[in-house]
Amino acid sequence: MSSTLYTSIGELVTCDGPDSGTLAGVAGDGVLGIVRNAALVVEDGRIAWIGTAADAPDSDTRVDLEGRAVLPGFVDSHSHLVFDGDRAAEFAARMTGERYDGGGIGVSVDATRAASDERLRELVGRRVAEMRAQGTTTVEIKSGYGLTVEDEVRALRIAGEFTTETTFLGAHVVPPEARGDRAAYVELVTGPMLEACAPHAKWADVFCEPNSAHAFTEDESRAVLTAARDAGLELRVHGNQLGPGPGVRLAVELAAASVDHCTYLSDDDVDALVQASDTTAATLLPGVEFSTRSPYPDARRLIDAGVSVALATDCNPGTCYSDSMPFVIALAVREMGMTPSEAVWAATRGSARALRRDDIGRIVVGGPADLAVLDAPSHLHLAYRAGVPIARALVTPSGTSED
Ligand code: NIG
Ligand code: FE
């Protein structure tokens, strides 16, 4: 087994210090567990040693990082990468005042159904490569642009070639051909579609919005989620994106790992998330507010109340065609009142929690060497140098990180 020493790390953000378990009540950089002038040893794709450069042990190979910062690889816990087709005109229309209502999803469904397996595989591969080139080492990928039994299974199979974090989203929208009979579509999703998809998925998700012709009501969403739970899947929810609604309440009631968007929350929603903070994370997706010209969620209110907050891209062709976690971090800092250290924590350890993972999102001896390196001396530069490609996944020998 060969070992590699990474040394002259200006700032090692471990997200594994004594105060790294939660954002609640931790001021300053405490959550990040920073070691300065650091070094670490990787053996066989795993972290074998962490400390200061002055104390570093001998190893077979030595890589001098020349003062760069090293962080846990970003965990993008919400994406819809399996799609074909272009909706740039819809984005342009929103920039001149059009509202997002989910109606454009049908355009992506048509294009995705028409694409070959090879084409979809190539598109997902390209998007995952873009993510790694920006520091992401774990990504969750949803189905949801197939919406037939065959097309949903196909999307999950392809997603499974790139990640173990696969999510069945047959309840993304009611597809055009099923509009006349919503109940029949919910029966399909909770019956034959779920049965065919469950072996290929770890998670199930639903787009729960009470006042949308396209998404699912509270009762429909509860039916989808309970059937999925009975089939052995863990739960996530799209909720409170387009307006106030039952998504958060339902996610907490069913002990979902995360409720995502959380743009419009009542005081009761926040209280419910505080009570459920060990179980259910609030995943904020500010790239969506950027791309839909909507108000940003109030991250400060959530963090100050004690909610477990995560950040992700939601990369999809409609509400956010960006797969950049550094962009999300910059938006969280500039537009949502998060400090740079809160945003980095929420994009790593916080999003790992939203996937119920404690092996990733932090740098710990024995853990996988899923690392991001910055062409910069500190994590502050992620927001400070917004739009500049300073972050990338660190390629480690026999590791899982690649450019
Ligand atoms: O998370 N809101 C539902 N689903 C996606 C958007 C999908 C689309 O517009 O294609 C989201 O925002
Ligand atoms: Fe989404």
Automatic annotation (TrEMBL):
Main location: cytoplasm
Organism: Knoellia subterranea KCTC 19937
Binding site residues for Fe(3+): H78, H80, H238, D314
Keywords per UniProt: Cytoplasm, Histidine metabolism, Hydrolase, Iron, Metal-binding, Zinc
GO cellular component: a single term: cytoplasm
Purpose of the protein: Catalyzes the hydrolytic cleavage of the carbon-nitrogen bond in imidazolone-5-propanoate to yield N-formimidoyl-L-glutamate. It is the third step in the universal histidine degradation pathway.
Record protein name field: Imidazolonepropionase
The EC number(s) this enzyme carries: 3.5.2.7
Single GO biological process annotation from the record: L-histidine catabolic process to glutamate and formate
SUPFAM superfamilies given in the database record: Composite domain of metallo-dependent hydrolases, Metallo-dependent hydrolases
Family assignment from sequence similarity: Belongs to the metallo-dependent hydrolases superfamily. HutI family.
Boundaries of every Amidohydrolase-related domain copy: 70-376
Organism domain of life: Bacteria
Annotated N-formimidoyl-L-glutamate binding sites: Y145, N316, G318
InterPro entries for the chain: Amidohydro-rel, HutI, Metal-dep_hydrolase_composite, Metal_Hydrolase
Keyword Disulfide bond: no
Coiled coil start-end: none
Gene Ontology terms, MF aspect: imidazolonepropionase activity; iron ion binding; zinc ion binding
Keyword Iron carried by entry: yes
